[in-house]
Each structure stands twice: as structure tokens, then as C-alpha cells.
Specification:
InterPro entries: GAF-like_dom_sf (IPR029016), HTH_MetabolicPath_Reg (IPR050707), Tscrpt_reg_IclR_C (IPR014757), Tscrpt_reg_IclR_N (IPR005471), WH-like_DNA-bd_sf (IPR036388), WH_DNA-bd_sf (IPR036390). It holds the Pfam family IclR_C. Keywords: DNA-binding, Transcription, Transcription regulation. This is Helix-turn-helix domain-containing protein. The chain is α+β, with helices and mostly antiparallel strands and 511 residues long. The chain has three domains: 158 residues, Orthogonal Bundle (Arc Repressor Mutant, subunit A); 181 residues, GAF domain (Beta-Lactamase, 2-Layer Sandwich); 146 residues, Beta-Lactamase, CATH 3.30.450.40. Helix content is 44%, strand content 20%. The chain has 18 helices and 18 strands. The chain has a six-stranded antiparallel beta sheet with strand order 6-5-4-9-8-7. The protein has a six-stranded antiparallel beta sheet with strand order 15-14-13-18-17-16, with helices on both faces. Helix 2 crosses helix 3, helix 5 packs antiparallel against helix 9 and helix 10 runs antiparallel to helix 11. The longest helix is centred in the C-terminal third of the chain and has 26 residues. The radius of gyration is 25 Å and the shape is globular.
Length: 511
């Protein structure tokens, strides 16, 4: 429970806090914070960066487990993306999360003035367009919970993704009226409820078997482009057409093929405990690994399956599931199965869902530069394939070194970065493609020697390349291959692992 609290406080803070700030935010002793962050760092969920604790991309595997088990982003995301392209407006998918709504997919337009919600963000129902649509199915206990939350937190400070409510605003009578209107019309509007200028129109996507909303699709804009009334007349018809296509896909979707469950987790946690001693909180590591037992084709699992997937004993798995149920991360069902709840997305997902490839690569490039005492860089090919553009890099403290400016462009054929990318994307350089790396020996500048390898996305395409540069007097060509290349391959593999995890349900821009 304390470890989950640390992840939630990091998420609310945007992904970075100092240990002392975590101590204040959680109310835990400093020694407890240190043990928890050391455990999370061992798991790859955070990075200890100088004086700060920083969320790392691997923590997204927790949210990925929920989204994979849910299936909706995989089944409906393409429709949302196509609608966003057609309307040139942001489109989102959201699910109900108690008396809030939580985003599970975002197709955001890249403009100077654009919607900044992220996958995993939680919003109060009364200040959104999807909220009244979900509330049409509320029972009296649901209304009572909503009233209690409003009484305890009238400004909505428990929802950090939206500005605090400054006035009484949407009182119970007004929200009840919006719910009844949504029940009658089958759609709902948000006319600047979250903040001035922001408007949205929403339509429920219904389960073909039950008729209940499984999620809500929304088109989001601002009043300089569309008024709330204009959303109804110009965008609502197209949104309804897209929702009809989503519901058709839900009706015809084949049963999911179960993916491979995680393996060796219990063995790994035991080995980590033996290596790190009291600095490794084994109960925290085992508890979090239980969440990764769920996924595509494994949305509802009995205790036996959770135990088998994780390698944990039934007693350990049961304690973890009961703890997660208490925290709202897991729901128990009468048939003795368990499912993940949207609240799993609270554990680090929102801040990282808007990351970029350079941001993922930078810590790994810094580590490689520190290890080899040579500058490192990442670059991609320009659209015409004639140049490379540097997107990230890390320098060293040497007197004679290579200064790499992010954004700089160089001829692709004269650099190791360009050659390894050209070899992957064209018939050129077949030898480089076969060996998997490229060398450049004093071709761009006298004395400058570099070696590069590709970075591949989930589809196996080389989307970027990373290199190490050196002076010819420091390393021979043979040394570049025997001493530098293995470390370079390891760094590229680390970047790829982060990219594959982060991009499973959210696009990762290359720049």
C-alpha cells in the first residue's frame, strides 16, 4: 500500500519528485521512502536521477495490463484516430471510474492551442460530457458516493488533471438535469465546464450484449473553432456514425487470443531480495507483479491462474489481490474471478503517455557516455532520406570531444547514423544491413570516427539510430567494434524496450 502511494504521488506530481518531497507528500519516514524507491528502481519503474526520483517507462506495463485486458483501445482506437483526422479535432475514449471518468485513448491534434488531456487522466463526472452519460446508469449508492465526494471536496482537488472549481458551479440539480437530458437524447455536451473555452460532445459506445455503455467517445474542441451548439449540428452526426462503426466492431470481434503470461517473476523477486537485502521490499515487488498477470485474453482471472502466471504461492497472490481490491485497483466478482479497474492507470501512466523518443533515449545515452567517456547521440532520417537530424545526445568532459547540437542536420551518407538508417530503409549498404551496424572513419571530418546501430519500433522498423563518436587517436576501428559496439547494442536494446512498452497504447513522437 505504501509503494502504491509513492507511485500515485509521483504521478500527481508529473513524474518527478525528490525523496524529501516524497517524504512530505506520503507522510512516510525517509528510510521507508528510500527502501520503496530502491525497490521500484530495481523493477525499472523509477529512475534515481541525481537528487530526484523519476518515473521510468517500464512502469507503464501496469497500465498496459489494464488496457490490454479491457480490449477497447485495440478494438476502437483506429475509429477514434480516423474521426480525429476527418474532423481535425481531438477525439477521446473514456470509461467510468466510480464518480469520475478516465481516458483510455486520445487522438490529439498537434496545434499551438490543443487539448492536453492524457491517457489515464481522471476527471469528475459533473464537469465533463461523458459524465452524465455514465450517470444514467447510476444506482442510489452511486449517487450517495458522488454527493459525499462533492461535500468533502467541493473544489475537486482530488482531480489534478483539471483546474480546481472556483465557484459552486455545477450543483446537484444542474447535474441531475444534465443526466436526464443525456438519458433522453443519447448524447451530452460539455459547454466550458472544465475551463473557459473548452467544449466537447459525447456519445456512448454500448455493449452489444447488455446495451450498457462500455465507454464514451467524445469530440473535443475550443470555442474559437466551434461553439457548443455548433458541435451538436456539425460534429455530432459524424460522431454518431463513428460510434455505430465501433459498436459493429464490438459485435463481430473474435474472442481475444491470450498472450503469454509473465514468467519467472517470483524467482526474480527472491533473487533481488537476496542481492539487495533490506533495501528490497519483496512484498511490494510481488504485489505489483500480480497486476501484470492480467492482459489480452486474461481479463478475468481466478486466484489459481494469478498464482500460476506469477509463480507466487496462492497465499501470497491472494494477499496481494485483497490489498489491491482495498486500494481500488482490482475488483472481485461473484464467480471468484478478479479484474483490473481503471484505477491501475493512476500508477504512472498519464505523465509518460505524452513522452517522446528523445525523452526515452536521453537517460540511456547519458549512461552510455558516462560508461565509455565518449559522446553519444541519436538521430533520425529526414523525410527525403538525404540527411540525418540529431534529436538527443550526451556529452563528456574531455578536452577533445564532439559537440552535437540537437536539431542539427548532416548528410546521411557521410555519417554512421545515416548509413545504418539508409541500410534499413533502402537496398543501399547491404553489408551494413547484414552486420547490423555502421562505421564512419574520418569522412565527415578529419579525426572523427563513429559507430551506430538502429533503434526499432514494435513493428521492427528502424525509427532512429544511436551512435558513439570518438577521435581516431583514442580508438581504432577494431576497438570500436570489439569494445564500443557491445555497449552500444545494449543501450539500443534498453531504448527499444522502453519504446515498445510506452508505445503499446499511445503514439511516441520521434522528436
Amino acid at each position: 500500500m505504501r509503494g502504491v502511494g509513492v507511485l500515485r504521488r509521483l504521478t500527481e506530481a508529473g513524474g518527478t519528485l525528490s525523496p524529501s518531497a516524497l517524504e512530505r507528500a506520503t507522510g512516510l519516514a525517509r528510510s521507508t521512502v528510500d527502501r520503496i524507491t530502491a525497490t521500484l528502481a530495481r523493477m525499472g519503474y523509477v529512475r534515481l536521477d541525481a537528487r530526484d526520483v523519476v518515473l521510468a517507462p517500464r512502469v507503464m506495463e501496469l497500465g498496459n495490463a489494464y488496457l490490454a485486458a479491457l480490449r477497447l483501445p485495440a478494438l476502437l482506437g483506429a475509429h477514434a484516430d480516423a474521426l480525429a483526422d476527418e474532423l481535425d479535432e481531438s477525439v477521446s475514449l473514456a470509461v467510468a471510474d466510480l464518480d469520475g471518468i478516465r481516458f483510455i485513448h486520445q487522438a490529439t491534434r498537434r496545434r499551438a492551442l490543443s487539448v492536453s488531456f492524457r491517457i489515464g487522466d481522471l476527471l469528475p463526472v459533473e464537469r465533463t460530457a461523458p459524465g452524465p452519460l455514465f450517470a444514467t446508469g447510476w444506482t442510489e449508492p452511486d449517487w450517495a458516493r458522488w454527493r459525499a465526494r462533492r461535500a468533502a471536496d467541493p473544489q475537486g482537488t482530488a482531480f489534478p488533471a483539471v483546474p480546481p472549481q472556483q465557484t459552486a458551479g455545477d450543483d446537484e440539480a444542474a447535474f441531475t438535469e444534465r443526466v436526464e437530458r443525456a438519458r433522453r437524447d443519447g448524447w451530452a455536451l460539455d459547454d466550458q465546464l472544465i475551463e473557459p473555452g473548452l467544449v466537447a460532445v459525447s456519445v456512448p459506445v454500448r455493449d452489444p450484449a447488455t446495451g450498457r455503455p462500455v465507454c464514451v467517445a467524445s469530440v473535443v474542441s475550443h470555442t474559437s473553432r466551434h461553439s457548443a451548439a455548433d458541435l451538436r449540428t456539425s460534429l455530432l452526426p459524424r460522431l454518431r456514425t463513428a460510434v455505430a462503426a465501433m459498436e459493429a466492431d464490438l459485435r463481430t470481434a473474435p474472442p481475444p487470443e491470450p498472450g503469454p503470461p509473465p514468467s519467472g517473476l517470483a524467482t526474480w523477486t527472491t533473487a533481488s531480495k537476496h542481492e539487495l537485502g533490506r533495501d528490497f521490499v519483496e512484498s511490494l515487488a510481488r504485489g505489483l507483479t500480480v497486476l501484470t498477470a492480467f492482459g489480452a485474453g486474461r481479463s478475468a482471472l481466478p486466484l489459481t491462474e494469478v498464482s500460476r502466471a506469477t509463480g507466487l504461492s496462492r497465499a501470497t497472490a491472494r494477499r496481494a489481490l485483497l490489498t489491491h481490491e482495498h486500494l481500488g485497483l482490482v475488483r472481485a466478482h461473484p464467480d471468484r474471478t478478479f479484474t483490473l479497474t481503471p484505477r491501475v492507470l493512476d500508477l504512472g501512466f498519464p505523465p509518460l503517455s505524452r513522452t517522446t523518443l528523445p525523452h526515452l533515449a536521453e537517460p540511456h545515452l547519458r549512461a552510455l557516455a558516462a560508461r565509455l567517456h565518449e559522446p553519444t547521440a541519436m538521430a533520425l532520417l529526414t523525410e527525403d532520406g538525404t540527411e540525418i537530424q540529431y534529436t538527443a545526445g550526451a556529452g563528456t568532459s574531455r578536452v577533445l570531444t564532439v559537440h552535437i547540437t540537437v536539431g542539427a542536420r548532416l548528410p546521411a551518407t557521410a555519417t554512421s547514423l545515416g548509413r545504418v538508417l539508409l541500410a534499413d530503409n533502402s537496398p543501399a549498404f547491404p553489408e551494413i544491413r547484414a552486420q547490423g551496424y555502421a562505421l564512419a572513419d574520418e569522412e565527415l571530418e578529419s579525426g572523427l570516427r563513429s559507430i551506430a546501430v538502429p533503434v526499432r519500433d514494435r513493428a521492427g522498423r528502424a525509427v532512429a539510430a544511436v551512435c558513439v563518436a570518438t577521435h581516431a587517436a583514442r580508438r581504432t576501428l577494431e576497438s570500436c567494434v570489439t569494445d564500443v559496439l557491445p555497449a552500444l547494442h545494449t543501450t539500443a536494446a534498453h531504448i527499444q524496450t522502453d519504446l515498445h512498452t510506452a508505445s503499446r497504447f499511445t503514439p511516441i513522437p520521434p522528436t
